[in-house]
Specification:
There is one protein chain. By secondary structure, the chain is of the alpha/beta class. Helix content is about 45%, strand content about 10%. The protein is built from eleven helices and five strands; from the N terminus they run αβαβααβααβαααβαα. Helix 1 runs parallel beside helix 10. The chain starts with 20 loop residues before the first helix and ends with a helix. The relative contact order is 0.20.
Length: about 260
């Protein structure tokens, strides 16, 4: 039986009504610490890899989410890749070439700020590829993710950061009006905003045709965004049969003290 089609217009972009902000922020702090503990165990065992994909319109808070949710994780066990406009070298290869180089090895958590989905989102909206190419790339993406999941024990957790058009305007205006945020300002973000409906259609296509499901994360309330992502990751990692390395039963601490 097929899953019902996800329609982003029917999903709230705000926190659930009745949720207490202070209580939620307190829970988030505990979840962030727990994620750090799980990451340490993941790194020490070196058996599984985790790929976290963050996609969303400009202003949806990808950078902020990374900063807050992974605050307790050790940098030695993390990699972060921000996918921007492809270089000439990258364009000379297949669209997954630059992505495959950034996937995590076992024991690591890799964070994608934007991802391989850009190649069926931006390129589709601006008409740089036709629908046939979109469908071909979607099949390639599913096969690519299946390869990572089943051939390299990679857990793939994908988040669509769901922002309202009104909130996005507020976030983009802050980049113009606040000198400390001006470095984020990009005139192209306003041009993409003119294609809002086309982007929503492209995101819905990617979400509904993905073999590995997406988590739709409301982000108008940033405190709820952090909670949602942290809780989803903790719940997901806790399902892994993580077993940190145990001491060698043939040696005791006293045995090592005797070694020169």
């Amino acid at each position: 039986m097929s899953q019902p089609r996800i329609r982003l217009s029917e999903i709230p972009t705000t926190a659930p009504k009745g949720l207490n902000k202070e209580d939620t922020e307190r829970q988030t702090r505990h979840l962030v610490k727990r994620l750090g503990d799980l990451q340490q165990c993941l790194y020490a065992e070196g058996k599984y890899a985790v790929l976290v994909v963050l996609q969303g319109m400009d202003g949806s808070g990808k950078d902020g989410a990374i900063h807050r949710v992974f605050d307790a994780c050790r940098i030695t066990g993390l990699t972060l890749t921000a996918f921007k406009k492809p270089t000439e070298e990258e364009l000379a290869h297949d669209f997954l070439w630059r992505v495959h180089k950034a996937v995590p090895r076992r024991g690591m958590i890799a964070i994608f700020n934007r991802s391989h989905y850009e190649d069926i989102l931006v390129q589709r909206v601006h008409g740089w590829i036709d629908q046939k190419r979109v469908e071909q790339r979607m099949r390639a993406i599913n096969a690519f993710e299946e390869l990572l999941a089943f051939d390299n024990d990679t857990l793939i957790v994908k988040f669509y950061l769901h922002i309202s058009k009104e909130e996005q305007k507020k976030q983009l205006l802050e980049r113009v009006e606040d000198p400390e945020k001006y470095w984020k300002h990009n005139p192209g973000d306003w041009k993409d905003r003119e294609h809002w409906e086309a982007f929503m259609e492209a995101y819905e296509y990617a979400i509904n045709h993905s073999a590995i499901p997406w988590h739709i994360c409301p982000v108008d309330d940033r405190w709820y965004r952090d909670y949602f992502i942290a809780k989803t990751l903790v719940d997901t990692l806790e399902k892994l049969p993580l077993q940190p390395p145990k001491p060698d039963p043939h040696f005791s601490p006293e045995d090592y003290r005797k070694l020169s």
